[in-house]
Amino acid sequence: MSHDRAKQPPAERNPAAETVAHLSKTTYHQRVATLAERIFPRLADDAGTLQTVSYDRVLGHLKVIERMSRDNPFSVLEHSEYELDPFDWERINSKYPIHGLAEQARRLVAGDVQRRILEAVADDEMGTPVNTNQNREQSQ
Predict the structure, then answer these.
(1) Which of 11, 67, 78, 101 could staple 21 via S-S, CB 3.0–4.6 A?
(2) DSSP for 97-115?
(3) How far apart are CA 45 and CA 122, in angstroms?
């Protein structure tokens, strides 16, 4: 074992828990909805207004709380509806295979969470005012 690998936290050394998809599609989407509910308040500004639901902000907030992509990467690959862009693939392909798999799953979950938040905002499920360019244009 190399010296660098010995310094890595155990979570970084251990392979993913799944080798095949274990979560059902329903369970996956329930977890995405729960993550969206947890992330949504973090996206609002101090006044409680939602300025943006950018993929990068969602991804950043998920790093702290989300474990599904590490524990269930094949379920994420099986059930995610998000499609990665070339930038995502650059980030994934530059990693060792097991870490690339976890990164791919994490980015897919972020895309699904972002979409779920946008759907909830569109359906006015979250009860938070949204300030977008479209809203500004309509109010003028």
Answers:
(1) 78
(2) HHHHHHHHHHHHHHHHHHH
(3) 18
